[in-house]
Amino acid sequence: MASREWGNPLLPWMVEAMRTLGFELMTPVQASTIPLLAGNKDVVVEAVTGSGKTLAFLLPALIRLGRLDPLKMGDTNVIIVSPTRELAKQTFTVLNNVIELAPNPKLYRTQLVTGGTNSVVVDVKNFLSKPPHIVVATPGRLLELLTAQHVRTSAVDLLVLDEADRLLDLGVDQTINKILGLLPKQKRVGLFSATMSGFIQDIIRVGMRNPVKVSVQSANATPDQLNINYITASPTEKLPKMLNLLQTKSYTKAIAYFPTCISVTYWYQVLKLFLSDTLLFSMHGQLAQGPRIKTLDKFTECNDRCILLTTDVAARGLDIPDVDFVLQVDPPADPNMFVHRAGRTARAGKRGESAVFLNGDLEQGYVDFMDVRKVPMSELDLDTGSLTCEQYLDRIQSWVREDRARHDLALRSFLSYVRFYMNHTASSIFRVACLDLIELGRSFGILRLPRMPELKNKENVPENGWLVEPFDMDNYKYANEAQEKARLKTKEASESKEAAENRRKRKERNTVAWSDKVQRKDDAAKRRDKRQNRAIAAKSKQHDSDSDDSDVQRDWKEEVQARKRKTNNNLPVFDL
Ligand SMILES: Nc1ncnc2c1ncn2[C@@H]1O[C@H](COP(=O)(O)OP(=O)(O)OP(=O)(O)O)[C@@H](O)[C@H]1O
After folding, report:
1. CA-proximal residue: ligand 1, atom 30 (nearest)
2. Which residues fall in a compositionally biased region of kind Basic and acidic residues (predicted)?
3. How far is ligand 1, taken at its centre, from the CA of residue 500, in Å?
């Protein structure tokens, strides 16, 4: 293995800067990668989470800058792409922290180019008025910048794709391909991730000239100092066990991963009910960028015992110091994500703990499945603690009964969970047909199950879906006055419409021939079927938009594609 002492090809000020930052030695991935990328090699780097990949590409980027011709207006030298805005911002901060320690920091200009902060017009204006040597960006906004009038890319010397497997994943690869098409062939390319997939072969063909694979893996795909447990629980056991774990375990800063945005919103409220002595934060991709960053900052700065409830939008790359426990409330739909989520702890040689809940014996196969992927885990035997399952159910159901809005949220959360479950890549382990939807519904605090195709032909479905003693749903009120008023208004309108319809039908019945009546009945049944199918399709669409994939994709698309700005010609012309 290469020496881990800081030195050549780093410039003397960089060696000093690393010591100032408290980094005595290079990590193994830095020792292997820096000479290659600072030299003339393209690299594909696969190294466990928290192993220091960020500096393994930032330092070579700075080294390379010193050898380039002065930057001309409207151009840039290095482009670093991250899949999410949070990660881009974090990388940008690390970069600037290093540059601040240079003898003349002003020699290195940097620009952060992501959606959710500046408008694209401002990004382009900044780019053109003060060309940055290094751009850190998310894909959608970057593409829009690079295709803007007067923006050139002929000086691009290095392209880095951080979390490359995610960037090259379905959906975003189109954007990345377009970006690649805009860059000069002569540049170097670096691909970095803790998990690499088959797409890499394509990128090697498309953009890389002399790729070297750097693989710094120990026996496992996760850091050696990370201990991973699994806990088995039936749906109704899960929350009491989870509360027991979160109350009794010793940790200071924890992250809990949930499968969808709506489930983060719902379980945040439920956990608040039970965990009064722990600070809770919640963050997901359907929140605006401002609150997202604010929450992350508050969580990072918090010195008390706290938990961040989130989705996979905060799974990759985020380096939050002192996270000592990661809970995966469910295994992620994409098994690769397991490693990224768990890797938010046990970073840079520190110890860390992670746990995942598995649904009873049904999902036990996941343990072997992950073992084959070099992610070993051992069982943690846990009971439901001070709360029996029945006590938990009583408490959550009476809480839901207090406000119809809570029931709406519980239902949406439950439906999005079922949809998420269907999307598991390891579909032989996670079989929705084997899920006990009735118990699952109860565990969500639902009072009455919705009509859903998955419940068709299921045994033991209670009459009319009631999971509690039937009660008058018409009098089930929203706690929020305005919301309740709106509900009553809608109800009144639909009742008078129904009454008018009934009057019309009665009249018709008395005047229409019998054969016509039969025909009309048939037509009405057909219309009803159509309506139901449409409702189911609409529901599926809604669930999809709740799913976490859309969460991350929102970042990729950067509102850019969504807003489809007319043409680049509309951008103002700036003084060059
Ligand atoms: N040479 C070093 N010595 C000690 N700590 C380091 C060194 N280089 C980086 N670190 C620290 O290690 C932590 C993890 O680094 P980084 O975020 O680059 O990991 P990563 O490999 O990119 O992880 P992920 O795969 O999760 O994105 C950071 O807090 C960083 O400051």
Report:
1. 52
2. 487-502, 517-526, 541-562
3. 69
Per-residue pLDDT of the chain (576 residues; tens, 9 = 90+): 568 999 999 999 999 999 999 999 999 999 999 999 999 899 999 999 999 999 999 999 999 999 999 999 999 999 999 999 999 999 999 999 999 999 999 999 999 999 888 899 999 999 999 999 999 999 999 999 999 999 999 999 999 999 998 888 766 668 988 999 999 998 999 999 999 866 566 666 567 877 888 988 778 999 999 999 999 999 999 999 999 999 999 999 999 999 999 999 999 999 999 998 899 999 998 998 889 999 999 999 999 999 999 999 999 999 998 999 999 999 999 999 999 999 999 999 999 999 999 998 899 999 999 999 999 999 999 998 888 999 999 999 999 999 999 999 999 999 999 999 999 999 999 999 999 999 999 999 999 999 898 888 888 899 999 999 999 999 999 999 999 999 999 989 988 888 888 888 888 777 666 566 667 777 887 787 777 667 655 554 444 333 344 444 444 444 334 344 433 333 222 222
Identify each DSSP E strand in 181-340 by its residue range.
188-193, 211-216, 226-233, 253-257, 279-283, 306-310, 325-328
Domain 12-215 sits in CATH at 3.40.50.300
Tell the CATH topology of 226-465: Rossmann fold (3.40.50)
Q: Is the CB of 133 under 6 A from ligand 1?
A: no
Give start-end residues of each CATH 3.40.50.300 domain in the chain.
12-215, 226-465
- Sequence-separated (6 or more) residues with CB below 8 Å from residue 222: 48, 49, 228, 339, 342, 343, 346, 374, 375
Q: How far is the CA of 320 from the centre of ligand 1 (A)?
A: 10
Query: Residue 470 C-alpha to ligand 1 middle, in angstroms?
Result: 55
The pTM of the whole model exceeds 0.90 = no
Q: Which of 561, 552, 559, 557 is nearest to 285 (CA)?
A: 552
Report how far ligand 1's centroid is from the alpha carbon of 455 (Å): 47
Test site for ligand 1: of 18, 319, 351, most ligand atoms within 8 A of the Cβ: 319
Here the tokens at position 109 are 């200009």
Establish whether this prediction's ipTM goes over 0.95: yes
Helix or strand (DSSP H, E) at 268:
helix 261-274
- Gap from CA of 401 to ligand 1 centroid (Å): 47
